[in-house]
Design a protein that fits this description.
The complex is a heterodimer. Chain A is of the alpha/beta class. In chain A, about 20% of the residues lie in helices and about 25% in strands. The model of chain A has no long low-confidence stretch (mean pLDDT about 85). Classes of the chains: A alpha/beta, B alpha+beta. Chain B: Pfam families: PAC2. Chain B: Forms a heterodimer with PSMG1. The PSMG1-PSMG2 heterodimer interacts directly with the PSMA5 and PSMA7 proteasome alpha subunits.
């Protein structure tokens, strides 16, 4: 693909192709570098309570700053909820630490438990979990739980501009709620379901 | 097994959408994999309110027993460094499930064609040696063009010729692995560029149909394919009235 100045530039593809790297055979140095990077990008889930695995019947996950702020404003308080875990991770966009004393502007991923019913867990994840870390997050978090009739609720936000609809998004009344549910979820959903061609991606999707 | 490669213009994936939608295939399973970017949505092939609520994720398997056809659809890009693990897992599943043959729909960057490839049909095929013996003759009858090999070092003559599929995603890897593992695989690909790739998908799926005869190809085969409801709004929302 030629540009104005005559140089040939590889056009970005919607298919997310990144072939040059994949095509090359890995040298031992490459392998070592890749392993080091993978180690750096590993996720650590640190639980502060002794009982492992955690018995969980309801798990509410708030992903992104808006959803995390919603929980901070309306649900969480130091009387009814206690911190039981934290996720430590690093990627190009953010780094979280193992401290549980966080400011709303920090990037963090904390787990809380309802003191009156310890099987109710809540997660506030305001940091960005990168593509290659999402699966790991999933396995490590859900792997530490003993699921007893587990019901999972995921709260997240997306920009209105990303919403695909016949009308223009300028005329839409926002904010508005949409939901996705598995067929096992039998209860009433409080808002309309998300219509095609809209999709959810990244950690909420995982 | 019919499946797409995540390749330029997503043509293979669009063509697979047409196959699943037209043949009204039933979902029979999915891949739980860390190799693809996660995504989820409601049923992309919904035709009515009742069937619109089934969740759909990034790698799902559909089947049509009457044609002994299993289709894998991939809906998101690969995560970095995960091409090889995915291909290995896929091929081991192909072998363990005793799948007779694999057909891979793919595409390649149109701008990388050489002078000869610029003329004539933009469609190409590839067959692994094990499949060549069985259907090579049919390809000749259909007058199909095999994907040309290119010089490993362009500009220098007397170099080895290698297979090069720019923009093809996992196509080359899957194909070369299948060759060495004795799997019967056919690759059908189209040269194209990014843009509105719906016409490319129709061309590719009609090409596939010439061979596999999935639907009756009458006078205008393109009209026989059913476009899924999820293809709406591919290029943005409606315009704000205030614009005018």
């Amino acid at each position: 693909m030629a540009t104005f100045f005559g140089e040939v530039v590889v056009a970005p593809s919607r298919a997310g192709l990144d072939e040059e790297e994949e095509a090359r055979e890995e040298t031992p140095e490459d392998r070592e570098i890749r392993r080091e990077i993978e180690k750096k990008r590993e996720i650590d889930v640190l639980w502060s309570c002794a009982e492992q695995p955690l018995v969980c019947s309801r798990f509410i996950v708030a992903i992104g700053r808006n959803a995390a702020a919603f929980l901070s404003s309306f649900i969480l308080d130091s009387v009814c909820w206690e911190v039981v875990g934290v996720v430590k991770l690093w990627n190009e966009w953010c780094r979280t630490s193992s401290t549980t004393n966080v400011l709303p502007t920090d990037s963090f991923c904390l787990f809380y438990r309802l003191i009156s019913d310890p099987t109710v867990l809540l997660c506030q994840c305001s940091c960005y979990v990168a593509e290659d870390q999402q699966f790991q997050w999933l396995e490590k978090v859900f792997g530490s739980m003993e699921k007893k009739g587990l019901q999972v609720t995921i709260l997240s936000t997306c920009p209105v501009a990303d919403y695909k609809t016949q009308e223009s998004t300028l005329t839409l009344v926002s904010p508005f709620l949409k939901a996705l549910k598995t067929k096992e979820f039998q209860e009433q959903v409080c808002c309309p379901l998300l219509e095609q061609p809209n999709i959810v991606r990244d950690l909420p999707a995982a | 097994l019919l499946q797409p490669a995540v390749s330029v213009g997503n043509v293979g994936q669009l063509a697979i959408d047409l196959v699943i939608s037209t043949l009204d295939m039933t979902k029979v399973g999915y891949f739980y994999t860390d190799c693809l970017v996660p995504m989820v949505g409601n049923n992309p092939y919904a035709t009515a309110e009742e069937n619109s609520m089934e969740l759909s994720i990034n790698a799902e398997v559909y089947s049509l027993p009457s044609k002994k056809l299993v289709v894998l659809q991939i809906r998101s890009p690969f995560i970095k460094n995960k091409y090889r693990p995915f291909c290995e897992t896929l091929l081991s599943w192909v072998k363990s499930s005793k799948c007779a043959r694999v057909v891979l729909l793919s595409s390649s960057h149109a701008y990388q064609r050489d002078d000869e490839q610029l003329l004539g049909t933009p469609l190409r095929y590839l067959l692994t040696p094990d499949l060549e013996t069985e259907v090579g003759g049919r390809m000749k009858e259909l007058n199909w063009k095999e994907m040309e090999k290119v010089a490993a070092y362009p500009g220098i003559s007397n170099t080895d010729k290698v297979l090069h599929i720019p923009g093809g995603g996992i196509t080359k890897l899957l194909f070369t692995e299948s060759c060495s593992e004795g799997i019967q695989m056919a690759v059908l690909l189209k040269f194209c560029s990014e843009g509105d790739n719906i016409p490319d998908a129709f061309v590719l799926v009609n090409y596939l149909n010439e061979w596999l005869q999935l639907i009756k190809s009458e006078v205008n085969p393109s009209s026989q394919w059913k476009v899924p409801s999820s293809w709406r709004l591919l290029f943005g929302n409606g315009l704000p009235p205030a614009l005018f």
